[in-house]
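Worked example 2:
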Amino acid sequence: MTDMTSVPNGWVCLYPQVSSVTEDDRATSQTVTMSLDNRGLAYADGFFTTMGVIDGLILWSDYHYQRLVSHAEALQLNINSEELLAVLQLYAQQLEQGMLKLVVTRAAQNVRGYGYAPSADGSDCEIWLKATAMRVSTALQLSLPNGNLVPIQPNASAICLSSQIACLPPPLAGLKSLNRLDNVLASGELQRIKSEPLASKLASTLGEGLLRDMSGQWVEGTMSNVFYQLAEAPLSESKTASSIHKDNENYLTTGQWYTPSMAQSGVAGVMRQVIIDALSTTQYPVIIRSLQDEDLPKLTQLFFCNALRGIMPMSSLTLLSGDGVDFESV
């Protein structure tokens, strides 16, 4: 597996190594061109993960490792996850601050069409990496019950989108596969709403869109998972509804949080699992619960999350009817 001593510009192929690329090429960060026959391009046959890097360390690296293991097993891909993570950590050290995007695809097959050989060759991979230097927000951080810190973004607003995402069979549901066309169209809808002149007031605070799957359940955001609280859910004895957010440290530990299941649709995100695990030993562990149309007017809190941005709290949600639901500000 490719091991470079400097961070490259653009995409590089970590595996398989290409013999025609010399050490001098690597030193000048020359990248390798992906073939148009790549199965990720042709069939979305693969998966990806996006990792934040701060102070030369991959954020939530254990969770990204679990994604490598689980996705390789689900898609029957041959990946040495421990070796791959070690290489990624070397890149993170050189990057210091920014983002690593990893794409894993099945290697080219001799079988015509969609199929792949029922052999070791059928599980071979191509592994691609792009390192991007960028600022990863750490100005505001929330302390999780287990002591870990997670970024928390300023309050924004959300809107229910008319776009829907696919329902998938096991083992594809929950995977961060390369087939993200439903999210592409949903993100396009969100961008159109932001650009509408008559929606300028809403667009100025609009941070995310809430998506249904084809069964009608509200599942996730266009680029994030969602957590919510309901009016009838309990509050801790030491807090009242009007004082929940006087102290940000209690944001996650006051009241009952729910998150939709990823069993038939959506992506089981890294930050989603971080939060579920962090609250698992508290008074109110996260409950996996579907989010239905009739629940939306009863929402009292809502936030989205992903591994790069952390927690994104919402101050309001605009429903498909145009009505709004307002929440307490963090």
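Residues 25-30, 236-246 have pLDDT under 50 and may be disordered. The radius of gyration is 21 Å.
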